[in-house]
User: Fold these one by one.
Assistant:
Number 1:
Amino acid sequence: MGILDTTAGSAYAAYGIYKLRNAYSGPGVRVKRTSDNAETDINFSGIELDWAAANTFGATLKVVTWYDQSGNARHITSSSGNEPLLDTTEKSIRFGQSGSTYFDLPNLSSLSAGEGFFYRKIDNDPSSTGGGGIWKIGSDSASSNHIPFSDGVAYDSFGSTVRKDTAVNPSSPMTAYHVFSAYSVTNDWADYMNGTLIYSTATNTVGFAASPLIGASYNFSSHYMVGHGRAFILFSAKVAGGDRTILGNTSNYAPPPPNITTTSLPGGTTGVAYSQTLGVTGGTGSITWSKPTGSLPTGLSLNSSTGEISGTPTVAGTYNFTVRATDTVSAFDDQSLTIIVSDPPPVPTTEWSLRDPIPRSSLLAWHCSDSIKLNDGDAVSELPDISGNNRTLVVASNKPTFETNIINGLPAIYFNGSRNPLKFTGNLTAKHIFVVAAYEDAAFPSGEPGYAGLLSSGTTLQDPLVGNPSSTKFFDFDWETFGAYGYRRRDVSFPENDQQAAFNNALSIFEVSFTPGWGMDGITLGQQRNIASRLWKGFWCETLMYGRVLDYFERFDVYCYLAMKYRIWRQVSSGLDVWPFQPNWTYPFPADKTVLASRAISGAFKAREKGTAKDRFGLSFQTRSPEETNAAKEFWNSKYPANTFIYRDDAYSPARDTEVRIISPFNRQPNGYRDIDYSIEFEEV
């Protein structure tokens, strides 16, 4: 699109080394080769002159005709000996290279108003005496026009009967490309530099020249332009202010050469897919990318059309190279870049992950507060993914805090209801999730804050755990209408319309499963997606995310792990805790019986039994870890001797629950270097 396609007014005449109107299909200039005076038209290639064709035609070319692109066929010519040069290096028309050079314009004396724009630069600012002549457009034949004169001031009679001695020095240097413009209407005259007013007056009589010039003033033998021109546009009226802003901006005439905006690239990791697209501004037409020097990391390649560097690096090292962006007129820009490829770091671990206590198959992400080491109250910037899948959660500002010794000597991350969430950006489909957390208040608040996001997607509506305002429940998204869905709190199942959460910072285990899976475009911890007001308030300790639904015994393993770590026990719907671990075997005790004498109906006395004690049984746990043993002992401490709980016997299908109490000491003894055997005796209630 040319600059005149973006303006409202129609040009009286328009000349440029760029296409000024997209519909224009003619040549840009006609040139004469100095070596033999042969002439040819130079057409456009894209939006610019075909500079390659010009260079092919000859080394030194004079411009004999500058074609009018307005559609009015007002072409301008230069007489023999006064022709400007076509400068293929500067990409301009060169004026005053060896004395006065200029173009003759058609007779303008019939115009009653007008405005002109000259896109140009001069060699010296201010010019030597008389050297700043720019044009002869007005009818003040007694004066010469100097823009600027030797004193740096603009003197001009554009379209006027009297020259305007502005006594104003344009603020921008004219040795850089700029647009000088002026308009003349009855009782109104002004000139501008790059759209900024230089001088204006309400005293003006319109008068346009019968023999106008571009590149020289009235006394063209001594007052001529020494510099470069790229476009001249003339209107037969004063243009609107918006058009003046467009026409006064040099960047609107043609895009600048390509400029690569990417100055650095992130490092890569061997075996991990890499993708970065280089940025570029400016340029004419499409951009072609290349790599003239250096080497990309092994496994990466540069897309010549898109500028994307992509692939999977395979060899660690530092790779230095240069990229080049080239446009359709062969203008280019180079940029030196470096990519450092490293071998992947060891998977982040905790003392728990090293013991591998949970199912690993299809484990998508594993985040926990004890995977980082901070001081109490420190801001949390990131949480590593100890699953090994590199789904690290990060936050840049307004960070949640690290709080020590929150549960069983372990830390938690605290969200105060106004902190930003921790996020991972990337796609995953989660089907089974465990979260250890609690809300701080007694219920979710009303309104927007009540939709407190504990765990959600990035931007898509795929949110496993979000609060329900003015309630003690998580929000019912009606997932069960799309497939098998389950919600449990501490292994107690709740229907989706009654998903009870945990409050007053009493940490609990939330478990959700969804057979179709949540197709998430990220992980957001502490907020519902990107909705600013829906922030979590309370503690969070751990999240496990799986890409499949776990079976019963895999779920049991997860609950055993969480019991050992946090001392949070499974429960049943009545609120009783469930014994957390499975024994190697059970052994029953004989029932105590009371033997009484009774009189037989006939014959001798005979014995009879009266009453039976409750069933009793012992549990033996062999070769157990200290972590399990300590957790079992703490459970024993909380129940012995009178508090009842549930023993779940998984030897049956479905498992059989029995309400019991402890009737024995906690018996334990070492078994090898680290393992422990322990046993406990229960009595049915």
Note: Residues 480 and 496 are 8 Å apart (CA to CA).
Number 2:
Amino acid sequence: MHCILGFRYTQVENWLACCFNHRVEQRVYRRTFILCERYVQVKTNIAATKADEGMDKEAPLRSDIRLLGRILGDTIRSQEGEVVFDLVETIRQTSIRFHRGDEAARARLAAALDGLSRDDVIRIIRAFSYFSHLANIAEDQHHIRRARSHAIAGSAPRQGTFMLALERARKAGIERRALEEFFVTALVCPVLTAHPTEVQRKSTLDREREVARLLAERDRPAHTPEEEAEMDDALRRAVLTLWQTSILRRNRLKVIDEIVNGLSYYDYTFLTELPRLYELCEAALTGFDPALKDFEPPSFFRMGSWIGGDRDGNPFVTADTLHQALRMQSDRAIGIYFEELHALGAELSLDVRLVDVSDKVKVLAERSPDRSPHRQEEPYRRAISGLYARLAATARALELPEPRRPVADAEPYASAAAFLDDLGALHSSLTVNRSAALTRGRLKRLRRAVDVFGFHLAGIDLRQNSDEHERTVAELFDKIAPGTAYLSLDEVARSTCLRARSRRRAFCHRRISTIRLRFARNSRSCARRPTRIAVTVRLLFRATSSPKPTLRQTCWKRRCCSRRSVCCGRPRAPSRST
């Protein structure tokens, strides 16, 4: 989240909400005064770096903030007129004088703010809040700039990097085997959440990302005058769009809106950056010990979410909502696989008359429905066409849309693991036939993405009243171990029973492993809800003892790692805390 000097700009939207909801105006004016003080703190701290000879590295940050501030000022002048622009400047300059110790300036500032109309209060708050937005963007870009500078200069490992963690492991005397065992059992699973009072609009975030992208482009070594003018014009368009976009939502978000907003972050970050994160990890491990060069750490970093599964006090989250959340997540994951497979097919144009091909790839090519005469000598492209067709069949079976029609129908995948095995066959064939370099780009990242996200994208936490969970777990035990009488057991016996089933993996069936149960014993508001989690689990995953489930019964998430003894999604023992 954007934050400067401890000031979170979501406070600004809360203050605006006070205006729209006709709260006490003096409270708004007082907070407007505080906002001006925060603005001055930002400007003062940036200006203070000028006097520090060792802070020349901050010059690009100051330049970016001046540029964005000037563009914002020009936008306010053109959109609101000279009167409003002069008012903003008066408040800004008076705030600076007060911050520098002029006590008389405080009285003048308070008088100026007290004399504002409601409309002017909103304009002033918007002006200073957007400056905070833009300054935060410039600061974020500066952090990226400094990180790149350290990497180019070959600086010592920085805080929060894999290299520093491995350096500490080396000093602690941790050996290679212990490190490998650690990655086999490690699990990091951040869980995305949402709240219906979330104020940040996607429209605003999109424009801010555009500003960040343009600032990054300005860091290129040299630009032609035309390029400079084009970037400046693009920045002005982005800031103008921000100014003319409502900073607040007027309507409360629905659960589906929360799901859509949560999924948007996968497009911007997780789907592309998590595979790159693993590449950095592998490079760091190679630097730690060259013997780890061929070691691919298991996917220890996975995503979780409770958007669409948080029923604890939310009557709008139902079994249908959870089903839709799972479908939307799967659509996002499989959609990126379609795109990557299409691009990979364009890259791997290897001719069988020039390179050798493994038997597994030959089998994949022969099974492919692609019979085009133009690709008869290109086994990798034919194999990828077959993978694409099977993935499309999987999407149809899961009732998901297909981005583009495959060359022909094929058998769907029973699990993401089967899809990963086919990608592994491509990787192995390239490796053993003098084409290992071709495995380190798109194919490597796609394999890692499938291993991390599967067909489910992220595990969904079900937060619900513990009474509901107890009845649900009892139903599951009735399916897999009739006669357990789970509801009649005390807490200790239930914990013992759950631990025993978890160790045997019988209860941690892959078809239900994507749902992690959260207990909220004090949330009685949802105990009588007619739609129960048990219904959702029963409808989506059909927890039966069949050893070979059909595709419809297949989980949206495969087991975390075949080498891991315990699945990360196993149901936990009942607890009184969420």
Note: The first strand starts at residue 3 and ends at 4.
